[in-house]
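User: Indole-3-glycerol phosphate synthase, Belnapia mucosa:
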Amino acid sequence: MNAPQLVIPERTVPDTLARILADKYEEVRARSAATSLSEVERQAHAAPAPRAFVNNLCEAVADGRVGLIAEIKRASPSGGLIRDPFEPATLAEDYARGGATCLSILTDAPYFQGHADHLKAARAACTLPVLRKDFMVHPWQVFEARAMGADCILLIMAALSDRQAEELEEIARSLDMGVLAEVHDRAELDRALGLQTRLIGVNNRNLRTLQTDLTTAEELAPLIPADRIPVAESGIRTPEDVRRMAAAGARCILVGESMMRQADVTAAAYDLVHAL
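Assistant: Predicted structure for Indole-3-glycerol phosphate synthase:
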């Protein structure tokens, strides 16, 4: 199976994202040549049952709690190396003790120094459901995500056409996986609401400048219908930031770098979970 050529979505893709996507398509071509679609699909169906990623966050919101998706990543394009030594299993245990609702694990290697083994180790170390954080562009990756143990995938609307997003979501749902649809502006939000998933992530990071601004979530979260679950992403560092996001309607948050840089990630997670 060959991965398709890079398909530019309905809007212009920022240069950084375009470069990442071009590299990702090449990676998928190489990996799918080594492991066929039929084989990775078989592995996906043989994997242990998914954990309830979406339900965990819905329960947190229903109970009036902060739904914290605690991220595990070694590096990022904007922040460079974040944590060394880097021990995904220990971090997962520490986040769970701090009250995290779910985990997010970076598996992209070129830009985040991620690996599938990081996800496997983190998931095995605790009972929390896990999001595979990567640039999903092809069905092969969705089956691969389930095969490695992921309970949820990320769909970045800026990286996908509507047709691509719908296809990837359909495959994820067929595997009983959750989907987090990520948006950066009103146009992407409108497109994401065409999907079935309840989870709508609002990324406060500008894809062109890589800077964060919490007003992005403050502007977009109130526009998300009541039957969906807003998830504020990026730039959340303090309990006050959590309260700002909750006031805008986003009681679920995805936080990584600010906690990953703390010596005591359990305490860092606890402070955010108990911010309200």
